[in-house]
Write a structure and sequence with these properties.
By secondary structure, the protein is an alpha/beta fold. The chain has 2 domains: 2-125 and 225-279, D-Maltodextrin-Binding Protein, domain 2 (3-Layer(aba) Sandwich), CATH 3.40.190.10; 127-223, D-Maltodextrin-Binding Protein, domain 2 (3-Layer(aba) Sandwich). It has helices spanning 2-14, 24-31, 58-74, 91-96, 111-114, 156-167, 180-188, 199-209, 236-252, 255-263, 271-279, and strands at residues 33-39, 47-48, 55-56, 80-86, 102-103, 118-133, 148-152, 173-177, 194-198, 215-217, 223-231. The strands form 2 sheets. Strands 1, 4, 5, 6, 7, 8, 9, 10 and 11 form a 9-stranded mixed beta sheet that branches. It has a two-stranded antiparallel sheet with strand order 2-3. Helix 3 packs across helix 9. The radius of gyration is 19 Å and the shape is elongated.
Length: 284
């Protein structure tokens, strides 16, 4: 697993080569505004934002820290932060088209996505799992043979779930959905037998739903999901500004406060996540 992050770091240093140059920092300086995208219903990473309120979560707090660092870098007394609500389906297009400067949610960094957008350093590592009703017959992915599994369309989870089912020769029906709340509704109504998503996000959804006795997670993960913030391609100066802030957060140990606030109730960071924080505490 350590090699995964070494490779991600190498990708980070090489990302954006050959893309057309843009100047996000100049745009931010001129407008006095930084535009941050988020996806609601992704607690504890990004949630809320209704009725004019700002979103809350691990990812959105890190993006606030980035915005503060960008303001300092540009020597601005004030920098207006504008939050833009996105969906899982349109979040990358919003970055690509310049509607937001950073997407602050639970986007997994993949090579195919890097053809469309660039990425920051990795900010979290999760795994894809399946939420089921509390039933002793469901323990591993193989136990869902002949069952129906809901999954968000257009996500890496959907792709990795399909790959895992094929590899293990599990004949299960994948039910595409457009929103996480829809997945919980289908599961509660017994219209599906499982709901696949990132493990920590599923835990957040169960906590939001109330008593957790009715649900459980499978004992195994079927994928590795390294989260990073999506930013526009072809802008090495802005990417450097973003990563300088994140590296300082990792290097100083400040990341532990972010983790404790939003994820501390889940226990200590995993060895894999701790390694990611350590490896990305790059020196100035």
């Amino acid at each position: 697993m350590m090699r995964v992050f070494a490779w991600l770091l190498l990708l980070g240093w090489c990302a954006g080569a050959g893309a057309a140059q843009t100047d996000t920092l100049a745009k931010i300086r001129s407008s006095g505004e930084i535009r941050l995208g988020f996806v609601a219903n992704s607690a504890p990473f990004s949630s809320g934002g209704e009725d004019g309120g700002e979103p809350q979560g691990y990812s959105t707090d890190l993006c606030r820290r980035i915005a503060s660092g960008v303001r300092e870098r540009l020597g601005l007394k004030q920098l207006r932060t504008t939050w833009v609500a996105l969906t899982v389906q349109n979040r990358l297009a919003a970055v690509r088209d310049g509607k937001v400067d950073i997407e602050c949610s639970t986007t997994t960094w993949t090579l195919s996505r890097q053809r469309e957008v660039d990425f920051s350093l990795v900010v979290f590592v999760d795994g894809g799992s399946v939420l089921t009703r509390r039933d002793p017959q469901f323990a591993t992915l193989a136990d869902l043979k002949g069952k129906r599994i809901a999954v968000l369309t257009g996500t890496t989870t959907q792709m990795r779930l399909r790959e895992a089912l094929h590899k293990q020769r599990i004949d299960a029906e994948i039910v595409p959905i457009a929103a996480r709340d829809e997945g919980m509704k289908l599961l509660a109504g017994r219209e599906v037998d499982g709901f696949a998503s990132d493990r920590v996000v599923l835990i957040g959804l169960v906590q939001k739903a109330g008593p957790s006795a009715a649900y459980k997670l499978l004992d195994e993960d079927f994928s590795l999901e390294p989260y990073a913030f999506a930013i526009g391609r072809g802008d090495p100066e802005f990417r450097l500004a973003v990563n300088e802030v994140l590296a300082a957060v990792f290097r100083s140990g400040e990341i532990n406060a972010f983790y404790e606030r939003w994820l501390g109730h889940l226990g200590r960071p995993s060895l894999l996540l701790s390694a990611a924080f350590y490896l990305q505490g790059l020196a100035e």
